[in-house]
Amino acid sequence: MPVDETLNARMRDALAAHVGISEKRMMGGLCFFLNGNMLCGARRHQDGVGRFMFRVGKVNEPTALQDPKARAVIHGTRKLGGFVRVDASDCDDAALLRWLQLCLEHAAALPKKD
Hints:
27% of the residues lie in helices and 37% in strands. The protein has helices at residues 5-15, 61-64, 93-108; strands at 21-26, 29-34, 37-44, 50-55, 70-75, 78-87.
């Protein structure tokens, strides 16, 4: 599952104004963190589709899944609570910023990790 540098660049650009952002390769792609807490990720899946993954938090997940373009994240055989995925083709720049705002609000409420 190749890393998708185009999706990563979109994510970096959208997060550029925020302090405390870091990156780490994991889950077959690249994940982004705020003060050590996972925010989101991006990768190209085996089916060739580029997708964004957003950590919205378990409290926000039901509301997030009401968006017809959002799906639950399944990693292997396990559903990841508090995460949703959106195909890159369904996530223009304005939508990306809206999803990231939800992720940033969730992560900002968590204690910092080193």
